[in-house]
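ok so i was messing around last nite and threw this chain in just to see what happens. nothing serious, just curious
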Amino acid sequence: MEAYHNSHDLNYRNPFGAVRAGEAVRLSLDVAAVSCSLVLWRDGREVENVPMAREESGQSRFSVTIQTPPEGALLWYYFAVRGDDGGIRYYGNNDARLGGPGRLSETAPAPYQITVYEESGAPAWFEDAVVYQLFPDRFRRGGDWEERRKNARRPEGWRGPARVFQEDWHDTPFYTKNAGGAVTRWPFFGGTLTGIREKLLYLKSLGVGAIYLNPIFEAASNHRYDTADYMKLDPALGDGESFKSLAKAAGALGIRLILDGVFSHTGADSVYFDKYGNYGGAGAYRGPSSPYYDWYRFDSFPDKYDSWWGVDDLPKVDKNQKSYRDFIYGGPDSVVRHWLEQGAAGWRLDVADELPDDFIRGIRRAMEETTPGTLLLGEVWEDASNKVSYGVRRTYLLGGALQSVMNYPFRLSALDYMLGKSSAFDLAAALMSLKENYPPEQLRSALNLVGSHDRVRALTALGDAPENLPDGEKEYYTLPPDKYALAKARLKLLSLIQFTAEGVPCVYYGDEAGAQGFEDPLNRAPFPWGREDPELLDHYRLLGLLRRQYRPLRRGEFVPEGLTAHVFSISRRAGDEEVRLIVNRGIFERETVTVQTGAGYILDLLTSEELPGENGTLTVTLEPLTARLLYLKSAPPARTGLPRAAGILCALGSVPSERAEGGVTLGDIRRFIDFLADSGQRLWQLLPLNPAGKGGSPFYSPSLFALGGALPDGDASSDAGAFEEFCRENAYWLDDDALYWTLKEKNGGLPWQDWPEDERTRENLEALFEEHRDGITRHKKTQFRRQRCWLAAKQYANSRGVSIIGDLPVYAAPDGADVWTHQSLFRLDEKGNAALHGGVPPDYFSPEGQDWGNPLYDWESDKDGVYLFWELRLRRALELYDTVRLDHFRSFSAYFAIPDGARPSEGQWLIGAGIEFFDEMRRRLGRLPAIAEDLGALDMAVNDLLKLSGLPGMLVWQFSADEMEAMTAAEAARRVFYSGTHDNQTSVGWCEECYPGDDPVKKANELVEKLYAAHAPWVITPLQDVIGLGDEARMNTPGTTAGNWTWRADRARLTPALSAKLRGWAEKYGR
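result:
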């Protein structure tokens, strides 16, 4: 007899996996038999035999539909089959009990599981997060650590193990034990909550959205799982104010704090037990008169008591005692409620198996009553859907209890695969079992860990470190170079699986930096500040960015698959997007695999390589210990083909003019346009037209929507109807802009942060508009006249065949109309000043880095608001220009953030909006004619974003001459070539340095003609370059504030001969 049922196949079990309470499930079995019945029971209840009906399709298939209970429960089933011989056989789960295809047997088999659940998901902030587990004493010493060390020293006469503070942060952790194995001295390294707060920006650069803190409450030990006082922070770490300060600073960056709740036991040296009399003698150890006496179980008072796993430093608590429950979660001032009110966003329950189900549910209710949207996470080491602890089936995932569990089964299966102890097929089966058993929301929020404080460090495990070393040798063991290289390669692949699999990835502090170490205490060494592995750091930053920016990695349907024994694959699909990971864990073997894609576009996110998918399939070859992370879409990114053309880069204020006071007239602009048209130039790229800010920089503008003073105000008389129409159409920015400038005049030019509170906070706008009506109208009329003039100039340019490329600064000036109007969209402090500044780290332009001073957008708190702000900016830009140049394009991938008062070298790259931003702008605007300014130090993520955005990028000869010359026509079609930009030397100045002894003007001339001959569709040269000027005509020197932005062309240099030369090149090279 043959039979078949596959619990992963909708033809045999529909719906797949866990089901909501009350939902119907259809089960089928293929078998040639006389009859078939479903053997079904609810966990802990009697078995039912449910007859199954033969389907009328003619196949040998029996089916039945069952109704699940109206509340959470576990159902179990297998099939009983009667054959032609009258005998009964059984079909049940496979021997590994992992679900999927099962097997026939002569006796009652292992059953299949159906998890019936009531919805009880984790908050969205947790599902979307990267979690960082942090051992507080070992992460970082803060500026307060010397003070904390003094406060934490035990007073004279204190009994119990002593505290020893290590001076050398990079020393190896150790335990000093007596002959019985008990610790006699606890080493502390001085990590503090202030130290964590000072490194929040570092954590944010990894994409961290939540910090899971190992215990922080007062305790005798450094691990603090022996709580001494639940209501008090350990003085070595900080105090209540330190915690609130950390929570507030973390919250400002979109990072939540998850506390470790150790509620199954306390410390013997504690307020509650007080074995040594250090806490005033009111503890249970002192006798029945103690208010805590009933919390503990004494077999023989006082020295024989129930303790956690027989460790007498950890007396167990009776969780059924009402007074204990009230203290932990029931009372208004209970532990759980208190710390949520102080700023915590969740609790992790240590050893959840030792807490009764109703105790856990009580904590959950208390959390929801105190702070809705918080998280309850449990430490469970096995499959939490069917866990039995102390003879009791647990209901962790059935609803109303845990919202997330630590996914140790993931860790074990993934490590075994990476180490060659199991195959890719085994890993896929293990992960599919979790997918089958866990409610979808629970799998989405499962905490996928690789390292932890309870296990050997990931690198040490992956480097095949010897397992049986004596403790003394383990303390000093580090992987030799070849093993470290192997471990690092494996960790990269393992972390790719971790960040791609369904669930929430958790990084154990230091794993991303190359930390090594055997089991406790060596896996709890101090973070290796200053000794980090930069390659691993970059890898983990990329993982955090990919998870944040590519929605399928957070919300996509999850399908793990073994392709060969060595090659493992994960597919995550959401809508028409899919991200597919393919990993070859083999150390020696190259593997070639073919996968079905059905995609019209494939991009490897790790290499930025676009791959051809033919006939709906893709064949890839993976070298040993490598991976592909493929982004697949049904169609390629939208790209606008650029017609072959040449153009000039010239700021409006640099146009030749006789106006002594600066600026230009409409006649000046038209004459310049005539020069461009007559010279065969079909593009005019401007610098930003908005008002300039500090140092005359148009990229530090106090008014991004307005037009600046380089434009003429035009005739003071105006058509009233046209002015009113202008005001209506531009009210979305004009009203606030005019009010800002009016109030700034009224306040003597002070920054808005120093205005009276009602003006600074915009509390009574209606009254302010009424009071300052005249000044507001005056500013509006100025903008009306400038816009009328500019649109006339643009119309004239278009009529002569010249298209205008406008420049869109990415950031706003801190003292400006945009930041004042939209304060919630920027990362500001309580006074309205920039909490984080835009800038760049040390680079080619500035060895010290640059702090631009601009406030950064708050993508975390108000993404929708920032999107609307950008939509309005782009709409206005497309009214003023034909194409826009998006300044600092790489900031949409990752932007550099410098804390207020810090040096640029102390900044961090934080994750930007990614491709979602460009998809959303195209959806809202219908089109996005733009050039991406993708200059500077770029990583793979920026290259990916450029390709997916479909925008042409920039290449500048002074940086990329070899690359530009080597480009094929297809490659160059996605680029705009420049001889230089406003931030470069002029070409003559550059040639003078690069080609000493040659005529720099002649060399620059050859350079420009070479660009005209290039494959790129658009070629743009600064006006200084075609005139032949040296560095005295340079527009801007990055990192400096004086002497920039003032260059103006001499009309006499725009000669007929120059015009003829440019026109000749344009005609010769088809531009």
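not much to say yet. Residues 773-799 form the longest helix (27 residues).
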